[in-house]
Write a structure and sequence with these properties.
Elements (H helix, E strand, L loop, with lengths): L3 H14 L11 H25 L1 E8 L2 E8 L13 H11 L9 E5 L5 H8 L3 E6 L4 H11 L8 E4 L16 E5 L8 H11 L5 E6 L4 H11 L3 E8 L4 E7 L4
Parallel strand pairs: 3-4, 3-6, 4-5, 6-7
Antiparallel strand pairs: 1-2, 7-9, 8-9
Helix pairs in contact: 3-4
Length: 251
């Protein structure tokens, strides 16, 4: 850094010589970064407004309660976390069927989307943490808040990108890790499995439900998963399939 005296001399020299002193780029760095953040925030607000304009509150009934889930009509080529897909409804029916004792169980949901599955688990007494990418959290948080008042445990919503920042969750011990329709992007399979492995404990049960859109792709995911996990149960529904896996004990 220049001393005040040297800075004054440099300023005088540039005036005498007729040269123009260049202002260091670093002095504008914080301003530029803040401006970019403001622009990004404005863009997100505009996007959310457009999403709201395309959305509707869709009624569902699960676990003896009428739910109101904000959905945005999208195609598979768009951001899919704004819609309740068939597998989501099938998973909710499975949970309310009572095959799992969820009271006071800790659950981590990956790719929660609209949050309907985690909401139903919360209504059934579980302590649920719902996670997804940052861009869908606004809708996820609203749906959770609207439908879980008075639950035994207040559900939590957190940002989670598969394969990144997992140490934030390392101190937690989950009874279940669940996900619905989260295996359709094959390029994310390794990050997803890495995330599940990192957050699993010996007692953790992994429940994944999906609509079988691409059987060959689903098969490749299961083959990859079974390098570290064993499939202990499977259920077939009219519009979805659910399987339970447990991590293979390394001795």
């Amino acid at each position: 850094m220049l001393s005040d005296d040297l800075g004054d001399k440099l300023g005088s020299w540039t005036e005498i010589s007729g040269l123009t002193a260049t202002k260091p780029e670093g002095s504008n760095f914080r301003t530029t970064k803040a401006t970019r953040k403001l622009k990004a925030d404005d863009k997100n607000v505009t996007k959310q407004k457009k999403m709201r304009d395309r959305s509707e509150l869709v009624p569902y009934t699960f676990a003896g309660k009428k739910l109101s889930i904000r959905e945005i009509q999208v195609s598979m080529d768009e951001e899919v976390g704004y819609k309740v897909w068939h597998a989501g409804e099938a998973f909710c029916e499975y949970l309310e069927g009572g095959k799992l004792d969820l009271v006071d169980k800790t659950i981590l949901e990956l790719g929660a989307g609209t949050g309907i599955v985690g909401i139903v688990a919360s209504l059934m007494g579980a302590d649920v943490t719902l996670t997804d990418l940052k861009e869908v959290l606004w809708n996820l948080e609203e749906n959770v808040r609207r439908n879980t008042e008075g639950c035994r445990h207040t559900p939590k919503v957190q940002e989670l990108t598969w394969g990144r920042g997992l140490d934030r969750f390392s101190d937690m011990s989950y009874d279940f890790i669940i996900g619905t329709d989260i295996i359709y992007f094959e390029e994310l399979h390794r990050d997803l499995i890495f995330t599940i492995k990192h957050l699993c404990r010996p007692h953790t049960r992994v429940l994944l439900c999906h609509y079988p859109r691409w059987p060959s792709r689903d098969k490749r995911f299961l083959e990859l998963l079974q390098k570290d996990f064993v499939i202990v149960d499977q259920c077939k529904f009219l519009t979805a399939r659910l399987f339970e896996a447990k991590r293979i004990s390394k001795r």
